Amino acid sequence: MSVHRLLRAAPAPADSTLPHARSAAAHSRALARQLHPGAWWLWSLGLAAAASRTTNPLLLLLILAVAGYVVAARRGDAPWSRSYAAFLRLGLLVLAARMVFAVLLGSPVGGTHVLFTLPQVPLPAWAQGVRLGGSVTLEGVLFALYEGLRLAVLLACVGAANALASPSRLLRSLPGALYEAGVAAVVAMTFAPNLVADVRRLRAARRLRGRSDRGVRAVLSVGLPVLEGALERSVALAAAMDTRGFGRTAAVPRRLVRTAGALTLAGLLAVCSATYGLLTPGAHPWALPVLLAGAGAAAAGLVLGGRRTVRTRYRPDPWALPEWLTAASGTLVAAVLIWYAGRWPGALAPSVVPPTAPSLPLLPALAALVGLLPAFVTPEPPRSTR
Amino acid sequence: MITFEQVGVQYADASAPALSGVELTVPEGELCLLVGPSGSGKSTLLGTVCGLVPHFTGGTLTGRVTVAGRDTRTHRPRDLADVVGTVGQDPAAHFVTDTVEEELAYGMESMGLAPAVMRRRVEETLDLLGLAELRGRALSSLSGGQRQRVAIGSVLTVHPKVLVLDEPTSALDPGAAEEVLAVLQRLVHDLGTTVLLSEHRLERVVQYADRVLLLPGPGEPPVLGDPAALMARSPVRPPVVDLGLLAGWTPLPLTVRDARRRAAPLRAQLPPPAPQSAPAPAEPVATASRLVVSRGRVPALRGVELALVPGQITALMGRNGAGKSTLLGTLVGLHAPDSGTVRVNGLVPHRSRPKDLIRSVGLVPQDPRDLLYAETVAEECAAADRDADAEPGTCRALLAALLPDVADDRHPRDLSEGQRLTLALAVVLTARPPVLLLDEPTRGLDYAAKARLVTVLRALAADGHAVLLATHDVELAAELAHRTAVLAEGEIVADGPTPEVVLASPTFAPQTAKILPPYLTVPEVAAALDAEPPR
């Protein structure tokens, strides 16, 4: 341990000249590298925030196209890069479910343009207000279509972030004090696919015993063996992590640990109450200062807590110009749409009662196109050799 | 480097101690091989070195283990992480991150090494283990041998003085196993790492060992010493040692090369082997023709032709990922073919009801636990009778014939690997299928359990079963199989009588065949010499 400390305190002289020269070259756009995962998530959350402000199908489709183009241009070839398609399918499923419900259960928006009429199922008095079947109006269908589309586009934005930067890479960039929580989250995320694979394997094994591998019973009957297997795997992983030095801590005074804990807790409580104050109607002049103070306290707590960890980071992702541009483009799309929705709400939410053909407002459309920026200003991801 | 002082380990629920009276010192820079039958405490001994026993597993440790001067009693595994690197049997259970490069860096990050040092060591390790091509790859996309090398690399980057490996090659095909062992050789030679390793497949590793640590079994204290001297008295021996004992060579040769140089007189003395009595030609009971099967987007089988004949044992060999398990799975209807036909006993497997299919074909999967659901052996047998509509007691009677001493009230998960395999075999045989498939049956079996399996399978074949076993174990294939088929990239590249196929390929040739061709196994040589094979 003492040797490693020394190494950290005084890096080899040969290396001391390198970082400067390296950083200039490393951030060149021509060099293939992974973009900081935080930049991708900020960008996609920006697009998602923009999408959540509008039900204009033309704008929504434009945002979807922008996200899809950037994913196609900048995703790597790792297994998680294929998750965009999965999220798109999930989005379609959500859209379809929304439509089916709108047709079957009717829609909260009234309407006069009846498309067709389903036989209505008479319901008892206690189910008053619920309708099953009945007439289906154009307005209701349009409303459901727009709402469903918005949800689908939100999902696609999350899928884009997943495909461009796996969530576990994002968690790797967490501050030291949160590192252990981050690892727990990563392990939990790998747990789910393993569990699915186990269920499949054991259901297949039921066939070998001459039992049916279909139906709910087949899935339930493998429950116990699957849980046993999952538990064994977790214990094996915990043992492996322990032998690899997970959880080594530096000796720090007890007081420091307690102070860090108290600061973090108080800070988070302050942030929560301030957010409540900001979101509830009415003027709360105290909310903003409390929010800032809380965030400050929490950050200080995290920094202090980080002193306990001896961890270092291997090849941390740099945050350079492409990251700034990517994050800024996402934020800009969100900002313009939020501002526009406040000024001219009608353009972003085309009326369904009466139904009108949606038009494409120029300024938001141009703003959405800014979201394409990362496809041109970021470096290509490195291709792993196959 | 590692000293044991009167070390004993007792687990809370066990009647006898797992280890007792271990008193020895493993010197620095040696490759030390742990040899012993199943249940002799090999894994426990390895666990005491990296501190997992008792910090992680529980149990009571008596005596003292010190590694590089650190007492494992007062140091937790994480505090030993910079001197001991541990790799278990299943590398997938060892991985924390998701790409090769991050995995190599993980241990160093936990130690808090400087970024420049980490960068340099990752590059060194990538070169040392031949992983440079794979650096950006996702761990889930690697083959078995590659994973094992990444797992070894991930503990090497922190420059441990001791490397502890629990059966590093038992899940690997012969080629991948050689890859991993070559890496270990290099570590011992170039870096002076002390390697402590346990392995059931001694024929793969014994020639690399500087020392052997023999754990003869419960009640007897372990001995550390010269490999040749200790192998002579070990209860588990690779074929080359058996052959040396049979021929009375001293000192015992441990490598095929040494044995071959000694074998000239014996070779002259041996008559040409009696031609094997080929089983009477019969109608195949299972056939696959022009079979194409995809797993996801990957084509796993491309135009496979195979016929299984009653009374014949066929070995299916090939690299990890060559499509062996897919072929077995297709024969029991787990995968539907994209094109081509499969017929088993007149049925189309993937279109048949499971209830009918088990009367025609049975598969013992790679992990027999997948097949066992019940709480006790007796319940498992009763359930098997019900599944197969067999007379109550059929399965239990089969089990008793295969393995006389299994108590009814044991939990299937508490059985040893060999016992569990036999229980799964009995469960499958309850429905009396004429075709029996086994996927990698000798994984984790010691030589005694393997010999029992060989006897059982021979009896089944003599009884008219068609047996197909997918295996990496060249010795097993040579001993048991009438016929061997080799799969590569989803195509059958060789199919014929076992002697022809294995003698033609250095990878699949058993040790005896390399020393005394065309003999394949030690019992064959013994029979030709009219001598008792060594026991």
UniProtKB/TrEMBL annotation, chain A:
**Is Transmembrane one of the keywords UniProt gives this record?**
yes
Which InterPro entries is this protein grouped with? ABC/ECF_trnsptr_transmembrane
The record's listing under Pfam families reads:
CbiQ
Membrane spanning segments where?
40-72, 84-105, 177-197, 256-279, 285-304, 324-342, 362-379
Membrane topology note: Multi-pass membrane protein
Q: Give a yes or no for keyword Hydrolase in this entry.
A: no
The UniProt entry's GO CC annotations, sorted and at most eight, read: plasma membrane
> What UniProt keywords apply to this chain's record, in alphabetical order?
Membrane, Transmembrane, Transmembrane helix
Localization annotation? Membrane
Protein name from the UniProt record = Cobalt ABC transporter permease
Automatic annotation (TrEMBL), chain B:
Instruction: Give me the segments passing through the membrane.
Output: none
Subcellular localization(s) per the UniProt record: Cell membrane
Q: GO molecular function of the protein, one example?
A: ATP binding
Membrane topology according to the record: Peripheral membrane protein
* Coiled-coil annotated residue ranges, if any: none
Q: Taking the first listed entry, what is the main subcellular location of this protein, grouped into a coarse class?
A: membrane
Q: Which GO terms describe its cellular component?
A: ATP-binding cassette (ABC) transporter complex
What are the protein's UniProt keywords?
Answer: ATP-binding, Cell membrane, Membrane, Nucleotide-binding, Repeat, Translocase, Transport
Annotated ABC transporter domain ranges read 2-243, 286-514
The organism's place on the tree of life at top rank: Bacteria
Which SUPFAM superfamilies does this one have? P-loop containing nucleoside triphosphate hydrolases (SSF52540)
Record function comment = Probably part of an ABC transporter complex. Responsible for energy coupling to the transport system.
Homology family: Belongs to the ABC transporter superfamily.
Name under which the protein is recorded: Cobalt ABC transporter ATP-binding protein
Q: Which organism is it from?
A: Kitasatospora phosalacinea
Q: What is the primary gene name for this protein?
A: cbiO
